[in-house]
Amino acid sequence: MPTIADYAGAVPLSAVQAAARLLEGVAVRTPVVEIPALSARVGVPVGLKCEQFQPIGAFKIRGAYTAVARVAADGRVAGVVTSSSGNHGQAIAFAARRFGLRAVVVMPASTPHIKVEGVKSHGGEVVFAGAVRSGEQNAKAEAIARDEGLAMIPPFDHPDVVAGQGTLGVEILEQRPDVETILSPVSGGGLIAGISIAVAGLKPAVRLIGVEPEGAAKLTAALASGAPTTLARTSSIADGLLTQSVGRLTWQILSRVVREAVRVSEEEIGAAVRFLHREGGLRVEPSGAVATAALLAGHVRPAGPAVAVISGGNVDPDVFQRLAG
Known about the structure:
Elements: H1 4-7, H2 13-22, E1 32-33, H3 36-42, E2 46-50, H4 61-74, E3 79-83, H5 87-98, E4 102-107, H6 113-121, E5 125-128, H7 136-148, E6 151-152, H8 159-175, E7 181-185, H9 190-202, E8 207-213, H10 218-225, H11 248-254, E9 260-264, H12 266-280, H13 286-296, E10 306-310, H14 317-324
């Protein structure tokens, strides 16, 4: 399997296009929908790229399936292992089952029940280790990979994962060719790095903005220092965005395109979940609502047509009721 060093920090557009072909019939070409009340508030047409309609309820199926398919084609291992707070783990389990591979997902003890059950429903084995994003999950996953002969597939810092996530960016540019601004949630940077490849290769004039919780502003820190910076701790209701640093590979890619990071508060995230439900009938997890939150709160004022990525909808029922009710 290729390593990060083999790619010298670059995943070409051709890899994204190959991933798009691989994902045909697996990942959904999700719609870009418009909520009139949102466009009216922002003052320009705003589309919402609805990745909650993917088979596992989040965009992660794109990168996970792409990476698992490469492992299956190689044929030298009987399974895969990863560390994940939820959606990537579900996607890995889903993909592994399609290829008849074993899937082990190492998760923080505090992972929402709905995401743990999501992994299990797709045939994945769950192993709990440590607190959220403490580093213990990755260490445990690497130990399992070594001891049990499984292929390690990280949640973001992997060329095949990034290539798969980039298909979302290609779709946005095809579905909304007039788009001038794209807003993407940021955790480890796999999604926004993938979108960066599409933007750089197909429409470099697009303004690409990363959005993250105030309590997990790792892209803000990286842009300020010029390199990935590890935060001492992260905290947010957006449980899918709690990575303490963007990845080395993802940074090398996204830093060529992304110049802005926007932070949103817990109250703004909750307000976005509520708005999307009441005005658009959309069930969105807090992590998936941050890009919309940035627009609603006025942190970003696009000059022309914009698209905000809704990255997923796997939210605990009690949390959703509290935020959207």
